[in-house]
Design a protein that fits this description.
76 residues; four-stranded antiparallel β-sheet
């Protein structure tokens, strides 16, 4: 598993795994923000799509996940 530290929190990418219904191995990207009580966002992708996943990709994934995780105007 690779882990990237971003401005918003931590993004990790799992080891490739087989999943029923998919003809290609999958990886799971997980974003866990700092100070959010263990909550996070995960998404599965084809492993070949993430073979060259970089810090810049982690920053973009975190920014996108952050927008889905937090509710505007709410307390964190």
């Amino acid at each position: 598993m690779n882990t990237f530290t971003t401005r918003q929190g931590t993004v990790s990418i799992s080891a490739p795994f087989w999943s029923m219904g998919n003809e290609h191995k999958q990886v799971e990207l997980t974003y866990r923000p700092d100070n959010y009580h263990g909550w996070g966002v995960s998404k599965a992708y084809n492993a070949n799509r993430c073979s060259d996943f970089s810090q810049a990709d982690a920053e973009l994934f975190a920014l996108n996940a952050e927008s889905k995780l937090r509710i505007n105007g709410g307390k964190t």
